[in-house]
Amino acid sequence: MAQLTRVAVMYGGKADEHPISCISVASVLRALDTSRFEPVLIGITKQGEWIVDGEDPRQWALDKGLPQVERTPGSRSVVLSIGDGGDGFYARNADGTLESLGHIDVVLPVLHGPYGEDGTIQGLFEMMGVPYVGCGVLASAAAMDKHYTKTLLAAAGIAVAPGVTLDTRLYDASDRFAAYGERFLDLVDEAGLQYPLFVKPSRAGSSFGVTKVERVGDAEELAAAVYEASLHDWRVIVEQGIDAREIECAVLRPRGEEEPRVSLPGEIVLDRRAQDDDQFYDFDSKYMDAQASHAEVPAHIPDELIERVRATALKAFLAIDGTGLSRVDTFVTPGGDVLVNEINTMPGFTSISMYPKAWDATGIAYTDLITTLILGALHR
Predict the structure, then answer these.
(1) Ligand-binding site membership of 199 (annotated)
(2) In this structure, are 146 and 167 located in the same domain?
(3) 362 in a domain, yes or no?
(4) What is the residue range of 117's domain?
(5) Which one of 48, 143, 247, 338 has the lowest number of neighbouring Cβ atoms within 10 Å?
(6) Which residues are catalytic?
(7) Which example biological process does GO assign this protein (predicted)?
(8) pLDDT in tens, 143-169
């Protein structure tokens, strides 16, 4: 009998996206081919503690609420020996002794946001010499930061939404930036941004901290939006809203020397927009309200436009030196222009997430997709 490949599956983390990571990993574990892979479950609490033998994430589901990784009476801390590579994963017993978790062949970090998707943990595994699924340090860090994503894409000749970047460390937050509202308005006017505006943290995901600003010249509303975003990141993007449909593509490149593959594009349809013109794709629409939106793959756009969206997604993925996987989110305007909104290097893997849905519609089933990613990481 062939020996199983041992996969350290990591989930949770310190980021706001912690519960989404937990839901994603539950779906991944239920779909994992256990005839080929043996999962070693490593959870990361919101405080950043790595643990094993905690609650089994396979039982987590969105309809049961947002889960999180927590210590349990039987859980143990994970200790790493950096120089030992795949043999350097240990658990600390109650008596203080260390017990090996066995050899780890590859890591599958189902982690979203800072400290999981931003190049930090990728750098750790690079130092250990342990293969891992997903983009490398540079691509992960660049794509996590919306400001630098836009900078790299613009340099590659890819259209992006106009916007300005604020360093909120330069402003006194004691009054929630109320004193700086007029200054923020001046920056918006100088950049020629048109309303509505979207104010968002530069390094956050799942729409955390995002506010839609619609009232032209309302300094109080703009300041409040900047303050909300600053709670998630000191770097804040004020971006011009684009009259467009949001079309998303899944990109797959299991090994660095392979040509990336791009899925059929999908579209998130906001089902309540007819009743509420102000609806946008926020956290609740993505994860909490099954009636708020649904995914359509392929998107209902002309074939020629489908191919331009796919070509743009490929170009964006290459611009950040992507490897493994990414979801590229684009805006398609009524005039047929294609702009890139953002790149997610570890997109959601929940049962309703676009990335697996897009590949399923393109001919790669969920379990096969996970297998392809793991095997690619092992041999790249």
Answers:
(1) yes
(2) no
(3) no
(4) 5-133
(5) 48
(6) 17, 206, 353
(7) cell wall organization
(8) 999 999 999 999 999 999 999 999 999
